[in-house]
Amino acid sequence: RLLRVVRLVRLVRIVKLYRYIMDYLTKDVEAENKKLNAASGPSWEDNPSAVGRALQESITLQVILGVLIMLIVFPYLSVQETRIRLDYEVETVLQLDGLYRGYLEAK
Questions:
Q1: What are phi and psi of 48, to 5 degrees?
Q2: Is 48 helix (H, G, I), strand (E, B) or coil?
Q3: pTM, entire model
Q4: Would you say residue 44 has pLDDT above 60?
Q5: What is the rounded CA–CA span in Å between residue 22 and residue 99?
Q6: How many CB atoms lie within 10 A of CB 37?
Q7: Could you say which of 28, 83, 84, 106 has the lowest number of CB atoms within 10 Å?
């Protein structure tokens, strides 16, 4: 049990070290990107226009509504196989019961 705790502590330390290294590397990449962006001047991505913001909000709303409508409507469009299968199974059982009773009467 103590060995498991030691392994867990080692695993946590490795994960923390990995996060530290990844943060350090991403900070370096972000700093280089800022230098390149500063040299190239202001970008249209930094300050979207009012039309761009309105279009983005409109598209986001449409996507959210589309997903919600699909979540609500699609279950009603699916074929209900369970009822068909249940009817078939009941019919099969009744036929087998009839065959068995006919067998018993023939004896």
A1: -70, 150
A2: coil
A3: 0.34
A4: no
A5: 73
A6: 13
A7: 106
Convert the pLDDT of each residue in 52-91 to its tens digit: 888 999 999 999 999 998 888 887 777 665 555 666 677 7
Q: In which element (H, E) is residue 62 found?
A: helix 50-77
Which residue carries 């509504």 as its tokens?
65
Measured in degrees and rounded to the nearest 5, phi and psi for residue 45 equal -70, -25
Q: How far apart are CA 11 and CA 17, in angstroms?
A: 10
83: amino acid identity, one letter: R
In the block, residue with structure tokens 């994960």: 15
Residue type, 39: A
Tokens 């249209």 belong to 44
Tokens of 28: 């370096």
Element (H, E) at 27: helix 2-40
